[in-house]
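Friendly challenge for the regulars: who can give me the structure tokens for this chain first? No prize, just bragging rights.
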Amino acid sequence: MCQHVGKAHMICLVGKKKLKDIVTLSDDDLEAAGELILVLKPMKTLTTLMCDSKHPTISLIHPSMEMLKQQMALKDSDSGLVKLVKNTILNDLATRKQN
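First reply, four minutes later:
Bragging rights claimed.
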């Protein structure tokens, strides 16, 4: 459950939409958005880390990719949407050069 995702957080995510547009989202939509936020957070963190480094080297990239793979590991408690997103990310990472 993603109960910590409130209306204020959703407003930040959606941008300049009016509050009346936000509250039309169903509870299931809000739940799915909250789950996606949690799943994609490690990618945001790694993106920020790589962008902050002028010249990311393999000593930064390789451990980061391995950490991302671990965080994308499927759990029994994951919803169908979360499993789909994690699988998509893992499949994409598998196509990257492994050396």
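Residues 1-5 have pLDDT under 50 and may be disordered. Residues 7-94 form one domain. Your move, everyone else.
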